Amino acid sequence: MAGASMNDIKARMKSVQSTMQITKAMELVATSKLRRAKENVERTRPFYQLLGSAIDEIIAASADF
Is the whole model's pTM more than 0.70, yes or no? Predict the structure, then answer.
């Protein structure tokens, strides 16, 4: 950029700022999706614990089979 004009520098600065805004928006969307996924995992945890214990009971009951 040794021979870059002032307009080239301004255009580059605008481009970088635009890229930063897009990156920030993408980060916010990813954070929201991750939070929602964690909430779904926490909501289904009791179901899978109950299912796991039921399977354990079935296996224990059929051990002599």
Answer: no
